[in-house]
Amino acid sequence: xxxxxxxxxxxxxxxxxxxxxxxxxxxxxxxxxxxxxxxxxxxxxxxxxxxxxxxxxxxxxxxxxxxxxxxxxxxxxxxxxxxxxxxxxxxxxxxxxxxxxxxxxxxxxxxxxxxxxxxxxxxxxxxxxxxxxxxxxxxxxxxxxxxxxxxxxxxxxxxxxxxxxxxxxxxxxxxxxxxxxxxxxxxxxxxxxxxxxxxxxxxxxxxxxxxxxxxxxxxxxxxxxxxxxxxxxxxxxxxxxxxxxxxxxxxxxxxxxxxxxxxxxxxxxx
Length: 270
Prior knowledge:
The protein is built from nine helices and seven strands; from the N terminus they run βαββαβαβαβααβααα.
C-alpha cells in the first residue's frame, strides 16, 4: 500500500488525462515523476523524451515504486505511427520497468480494444470485461496489444498491471455517446489509486468510467479493486440530447462500443 513517500512515474504527463492527474494524484500522497515528449512548463525535473528513447525511460523508471502509463497516440493514426508510439513504446516501457524492479504498472487501455463488440440494449446485461479483443482501429489494436503485453509480463516476470479501458475522461461529456462512457477526472484519480493500492492484482482488466446512469459495461472488476465512483454523467444528458439528438438503431454510435471508430474511415471525434 502506498504512503506519502511513494513515487510514481506518470507518462504522458503533458496530455489531457496526464495534466488532470498531475493536479489530482499528489493529494493521495504520491510524489510524481513526469515523462512526456512535450516539455512541461514549470516542471524543470520532468523527463522530456518519447517512448522510443530507451535511455530516457531507464532514467525515468529508476527508483520509482509504480508507473501510471498514459503516454502514446490517443486517436487513430497511420499504422507506422501507432506502431512506434503505442506498441514499440509500451514494450520499451515494460522492459525498462522490469529491469528497474518496478512491480506495478497502471496503463491506459481503451474501450476501442473491444470496439466492435455489440452494445447491450437498454435493460440488458452490461458488457463483460471478459469480452474478447475486437479492436476497431489501429489505435484499438495497440491497446489490445498493451493488454496482452501486460499479461505476458505478469505470467513470465511477475510484473503486475491494471489495464484500464478508459471510456472518455474529460471535465464533462461532450456527446450523447459519452453519457455512458464518461470518466470524470475525480473518478479517474480514484480508479488509478485503487489500481495502485489493491493487493495481488496480477493482470487485471477493468472498464474505466464513472457510475453513469446510462452505463452499458460492467464495472465489477474495477469495484473489486476498491474503486468507488462518485460521479454520474446524467446531469449533462438533457443538454447534449437537445443539441445532438439520440443515436438511432443501426448507427455505430448506438450499436457498437467503439462508436464511430468502427466506421471506415473513422469519424471524429470518437
